[in-house]
C-alpha cells in the first residue's frame, strides 16, 4: 500500500482544511485513489473543535495586533494550537483497505505508537496518558 506525501511548507489553516475536505470527497468518489499525507506548518492559529469551550481559551482573543487566528472547525476535541516550526501531518487514508481497521480508536492508538517510536529514535521518551488521546513528553529543566 502506498501513500503520496505532499510537503507543502507554510499553509493557512483554512486552506489546508479545504484541501483535506476536497481530498476526502475525491476518496469517497473513487476508492482506488492512493492514500495521501499532507505535511505542512501553519501560521499561528488556535482551532476549536466541536467540544471546545471558550473557557479553555485563556488569553484575550480581542487584543489589538494579535498575530493569530481563532477558528471553529468541524472536528472533535477542544482547543489546539498550531504555529510556525511545528510540523503538522494530515493523513487522508482509506481505513477499509490494507493493514488498517475502520475503527477510530484503533487508528488513534496506531498514530500514537508511530509518534512514540519516532521520538525514541531521537532519544526522547513519549508516553500515552490513560484516558487521553495523544503523546505526552515530559521536559526536564535540569540541563
TrEMBL record:
Gene3D superfamilies hit by this protein: Bira Bifunctional Protein, Domain 2
Keywords for this protein: Acyltransferase, Transferase
GO molecular function, one term: lipoyl(octanoyl) transferase activity
Xref: SUPFAM superfamilies: Class II aaRS and biotin synthetases
Pathway: Protein modification; protein lipoylation via endogenous pathway; protein N(6)-(lipoyl)lysine from octanoyl-[acyl-carrier-protein]: step 1/2
Domain BPL/LPL catalytic: 31-143
Source superkingdom: Eukaryota
Residue intervals passing through the bilayer: none
Stored InterPro entries: aa-tRNA-synth_II/BPL/LPL, BPL_LPL_catalytic, Octanoyltransferase, Octanoyltransferase_CS
Any one Gene Ontology BP term: protein lipoylation
Enzyme Commission code: 2.3.1.181
Family: Belongs to the LipB family.
Protein name (Swiss-Prot/TrEMBL): lipoyl(octanoyl) transferase
Lineage per the UniProt record: Eukaryota, Sar, Stramenopiles, Oomycota, Saprolegniomycetes
Amino acid at each position: 500500500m502506498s501513500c503520496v506525501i505532499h510537503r507543502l511548507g507554510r499553509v493557512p489553516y483554512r486552506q489546508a482544511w479545504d484541501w483535506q475536505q476536497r481530498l476526502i470527497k475525491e476518496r469517497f468518489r473513487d476508492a482506488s485513489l492512493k492514500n495521501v499525507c499532507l505535511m505542512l506548518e501553519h501560521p499561528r492559529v488556535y482551532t476549536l473543535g466541536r467540544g471546545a469551550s471558550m473557557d479553555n481559551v485563556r488569553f484575550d482573543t480581542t487584543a489589538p495586533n494579535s498575530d493569530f487566528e481563532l477558528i471553529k472547525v468541524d472536528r472533535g476535541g477542544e482547543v489546539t494550537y498550531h504555529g510556525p516550526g511545528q510540523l503538522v501531518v494530515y493523513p487522508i487514508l482509506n481505513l477499509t483497505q490494507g493493514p488498517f481497521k475502520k475503527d477510530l480508536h484503533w487508528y488513534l492508538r496506531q498514530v500514537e505508537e508511530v509518534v512514540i517510536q519516532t521520538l525514541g529514535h531521537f532519544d526522547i521518551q513519549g508516553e500515552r496518558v490513560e484516558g487521553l488521546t495523544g503523546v505526552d513528553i515530559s521536559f526536564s529543566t535540569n540541563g
